[in-house]
Amino acid sequence: MVDPKTLKLVPLASQGKDEELMHAIKGILSSDETASKTMGMRAIMGKQILVSNNSQLDPQVLFRAKYTESGIHSMAVFPLMVSDNAVGVLALYASEIDFFHGDELKLLTELAGDISFAIDHLEKQERLSYLAYYDALTGLANQSLFLERVAQSSRSALSSGHKLAIVLIDLERFKNINDSLGRTAGDELLRKVAQWLTRYAGDANLLARLGADRFAVLMPVVKPEHDVEHLLAEMMTAFLAHPFRLNDAIFRIAVKAGVALFPDDGADTDTLFRNAEAALKKTKSSGERYLFYTKSMNEMVAGKLTMENQLRQALRQGEFVLHYQPKVNLVTGKMTSAEALIRWNRPKTGLVPPGHFIPILEEIGLINEVGRWAIRQANTDYLRWHTAGLAPVPIAVNVSAMQLRHRTFFDEVRQLVESDVRTAAGLELEITESLIMEDIKHSISSLQAIRALGLTIAIDDFGTGFSSLSYLSRFPVNTLKIDRSFVVDMTTAPEGLALVSTIINLAHALKLKVVAEGVETQEQERLLRLLNCDEMQGFLFSRPVPADIFEAQFLTQGPVNPAHE
Ligand code: C2E
Ligand code: MG
Ligand code: MG
């Protein structure tokens, strides 16, 4: 066969001739001057059969004397072809002169063809089984081999009564590095990580690459459980300290990990693995570096899944409803506007408050559709009241971060505004402070565009989001809503009153209207009036109520009248 590294022929097997001749042939094949001129090598280069029927006199036989000495007078060399490459030769020697002719050559050519086929098949088989069990990029085991090894180790853990742990690891920032430095550098990093892990674990058989930037480590013997934690923390620190060199720059890579223990977290390999995955997922959404799987965690994930399906169905089947809560002018006592607050009218359980499902809607990306529904519904109610001859107040709708960032959000609002001249004056958007601060530049320009449509905008939950004061003056908003927690503190802590007073003065200095949220007591109302707060909203005046009750209770014919006597 041709050695792929030296490109020289190396005898692999021989039959029938003595050791001495084989030894001599090896010498000829490996010598630098002669190697390329031997019949074997020429058969390979030319991909052709070479025959010498009188070697003793044949100039193409380099070592005629040697062969004659060993009693060889005829020789034939057949290239072994695999996918159009000559990978080796079948060489035959005979003691007779003029031995290789017609039928023999035909037969032997077929024989060489069979051998080639077998070599090709074996190589493919080997490659296939390699690919079936190993990760081609790093050479580590892949998931199926890893799981087999875990199964094997768990059998011995069971019989000797100890635990084992599987740790799944994700690299942080990998996508980032891959995108900015390119695929080649990304691959290089993965190989280096595999090498580092192999060196650290001391045994490649305990490791696997599961895909992308995810690796797995098997700890086959875990005695006390805190052992794992200790080992893991140590490993993660060492990993972070290691400088990975890529494109002449040094990178330090942090990792996140999820751990599952056998048999506690899964009596079979599949469950164990799935639970390690759940733990990793949890780690990634938390601030932790690693987390252990716990049963309750799994139940949480399952609960969320069914919740997700239920929410999708809720949107399809119209189970969301809007309740309306009035905002009242503190001087006149009149209702000035109302806030639309979404509820989920969940079959069997009843009304679910938004705090229980808005975060999930955001996580699964359904907030855009539900948010769109809320804006349209509020607008529909407003126009209906208008058409019915009532004097509806502007309706404020809450908008979440994802909605505001969504590329079609503005166009949808614009279309709505363009569909009816009354819409713009009847619609306000409430956006939480923390959201605006997350992406100031983008916020300013999207808020400007919305303002230009004629809508008003309120900053919700003000005081909870660390606004930069210099930016606050540049936000194109109309209203500040003081978060309920400050209103509560107003009467319970001495600084509370000062804080609310300061916020009100700040808002007025910026020419903004100020609304206090969550006003529940007359004492709070009195203080707010003293502090010159413009409006209040809260249970004291009214809880959020369904649209029909809101209509009956607070909307009057013609011009707006005081809503409470
Ligand atoms: P928010 O916009 O700050 O709404 C005020 C919350 O305070 C409402 O809670 C309201 O029911 C409650 N509240 C009003 N007055 C009082 C009071 O006197 N005392 C107390 N303890 N609470 C009072 P709710 O309805 O549970 O809504 C919670 C949050 O959910 C809202 O906070 C808002 O951020 C969000 N939300 C509601 N509807 C929507 C919506 O359609 N879309 C989006 N994206 N978020 C919404
Ligand atoms: Mg609000
Ligand atoms: Mg609020």
Helix-strand blueprint:
Elements: H1 19-30, H2 39-46, E1 50-52, H3 64-69, E2 74-82, E3 85-94, H4 102-133, H5 143-160, E4 163-171, H6 174-181, H7 183-201, E5 207-211, E6 214-222, H8 226-241, E7 244-246, E8 249-251, E9 255-262, H9 269-284, E10 290-292, H10 295-316, E11 320-329, E12 335-346, E13 350-352, H11 358-363, H12 367-387, E14 395-399, H13 401-405, H14 409-419, E15 427-432, H15 433-438, H16 440-452, E16 456-462, H17 469-472, E17 479-482, H18 484-492, H19 494-509, E18 513-516, H20 522-530, E19 535-536, E20 545-546, H21 547-554
Parallel strand pairs: 9-10, 12-14, 14-15, 15-16, 16-17, 17-18, 18-19
Antiparallel strand pairs: 1-2, 2-3, 4-6, 4-9, 5-6, 7-8, 11-12, 11-19, 11-20, 12-13
Bound molecules: ligand C2E and magnesium ion (2 copies).
